[in-house]
Design brief:
Its main location: membrane. It is found in: Membrane. InterPro entries: Na/ntran_symport, SNS_sf, YocR/YhdH-like. The chain is mainly α. The protein has a single domain, classed as Hydantoin permease, CATH 1.10.4160. The protein is built from 18 helices and no strands. α4 runs antiparallel to α5 and α13 runs antiparallel to α14. The longest helix is centred in the N-terminal third of the chain and has 43 residues. It is globular. The termini are far apart. The structure holds 4-fluoro-L-phenylalanine (PFF). The site of 4-fluoro-L-phenylalanine has 16 residues, from α1, α2, α5, α10 and α14.
């Protein structure tokens, strides 16, 4: 007999964990900067539509498969497969998910490490350690390795503690703190000169900018933001009790994720224009808004510096927000390979966590040592290729390979009178046909 499986103790616990996975750097950094760079509210509108029409149905496929099979992605997809060929494909897709989740974590931990270093910087300044402060915000290999290791260590400590005492407890503690910090920061930034221009850029739609490229970028963002394709939501679904309604919880996770991304825009864009008002360059030489690492690592810190001593506290609050958001996401990524090692390789949780955590840290190290060649490449392979392709595979497993009666039975668990809902009438067909086709269409466009 193997050890009993972990389970979330309540639906709130699941909600915090799943929303914690979804809400991350993708929401606070990726979404607002993509919106700023591609048409403000036009992007926001397309994103909202795609999140509900495409990402939510795909999320439901993962949650349903996970809760039914009550196991990691490899075993789950093999369980719902019918014959040897589909079992083989299930295993292949499952391993693909584990590989892509690990790759995402390997670059995510580097970026999150920058956030931890920037969080430490105001403390160093406060104590007059100027050299240390400079090292913390500099861009040395030693700094990157140190802070990636620290962040990976934090992730491993939580995962080693298990589903209820690790994932659920920390997500339930960190998610409300994230919201409070973000709201306080928004209030502060909106009271500063220049903020309203940023708000306008964010909220005034320029509909002429809606084109296939914008739709593709919005789809990629929605997939990344809802942590789809790689088995994170599948494994969290597998820890959920049969008494809860999947369509409702899935919708809530989507709403929270979209809501926080939207709210983060109310912080980041106004903050950029406040920085401009204070004399910081926010447009690149070619006239585009600085979006990538330059925004979080240069524009905003320059703004915090301008603010004098208040700036130290605002910087602490901002980078604490980023670290919290990253941590509730990174634990969900690490849980994917760890759950596989526990269930399929029969390794105890602590050993599984050390093993997988160290392998992923080794990949991060290789990326840091070959940053220019590998960083962008790993992001592109895992998020632009891996996630959408695996998303299609999961929809096909839910819609075509899995026995229909079992899928429908699982949906009914915990949801009385589901037969009268719109979800019941649409989703089982939608996930079979519309979802894979839409994802593939958008994907094909990016490739050809
Ligand atoms: N959803 C996270 C974010 O928006 O930052 C990123 C992420 C988490 C992607 C977990 C994939 C994953 F499995």
């Amino acid at each position: 007999m193997s050890a009993p499986r972990g389970q979330f103790s309540s639906n709130i616990g699941f909600l915090m964990a799943a929303a914690g996975s979804a809400v991350g750097l993708g929401n606070i950094w990726g979404f607002p900067t993509k919106a700023a760079a591609s048409g403000g509210a036009a992007f926001v509108m397309v994103y909202l539509i795609l999140a509900f029409l495409l990402a939510y149905p795909a999320l439901m496929a993962e949650l349903t498969i996970g809760r039914y099979a009550r196991s990691n992605m490899v075993h789950a997809l093999r369980t719902i497969a019918k014959g040897p060929v589909s079992r083989f494909l299930g295993g292949l897709t499952g391993f693909g998910g584990i590989a892509v989740a690990s790759l995402i974590l390997s670059f995510y931990a580097i970026v999150a490490g920058w956030m931890v270093a920037h969080l430490a910087e105001p403390f160093a300044s406060l104590f007059g350690a100027t050299d240390a402060a400079q090292w913390l915000t500099g861009d040395s290999t030693a700094r990157n390795l140190t802070f990636t290791a620290i962040f990976s260590g934090m992730t491993m400590v939580i995962i080693a503690a298990g589903v209820e005492k690790g994932i659920e407890r920390w997500s339930t503690l960190l998610m409300p703190s994230l919201l409070i910090l973000m709201l306080l920061l928004i209030l502060y930034v909106l009271s500063q000169p220049g903020a309203m221009t940023g708000l306008e850029v964010y909220l005034m739609p320029d509909l002429s900018l809606i084109d296939p490229e914008l739709m593709l970028s919005a789809m990629g963002q929605a997939f990344f933001s809802l942590s789809l394709g790689v088995g994170t939501m599948l494994i969290y679904g597998s820890y959920l009790s049969q008494q809860e309604s999947l369509p409702r919880l899935g919708a809530l996770v989507t709403l929270i994720d979209v809501g926080i991304a939207f709210t983060a825009g109310l912080l980041i864009l106004p903050a950029m224009y406040v920085a401009q008002e204070a004399g910081t360059q926010i447009f690149s030489a070619s006239g585009e808004l600085i979006a990538g690492p330059g925004l979080i690592l240069q524009v905003l810190p320059a703004l915090f510096n301008e603010m004098g001593s208040a700036g130290l506290f605002v910087a602490m609050a901002f980078f604490a927000l980023m670290v919290i958001a990253s941590l509730t996401s990174s634990i969900s990524m690490l849980e994917v390979p760890v759950a596989f090692a526990i269930e399929s390789l029969k390794v105890p949780r602590k050993a599984a966590t050390s093993m997988m955590g160290l392998v992923i840290f080794a990949i991060s190290t290789v990326i840091i040592l070959n940053f220019d060649a590998l960083f962008g490449l790993v992001i592109s392979i895992s998020t632009e290729w891996g996630q959408p392709l695996l998303g299609v595979a999961l929809c096909i497993f839910a819609g075509w390979i899995w026995r229909r009666d079992q899928l429908l039975m699982e949906l009914k668990e915990g949801h009385e009178h589901i037969e009268s809902t719109l979800f019941w009438k649409i989703w089982p067909w939608y996930v079979r046909i519309v979802c894979p086709l839409l994802i593939l269409a958008a994907f094909a466009q990016s490739v050809f």
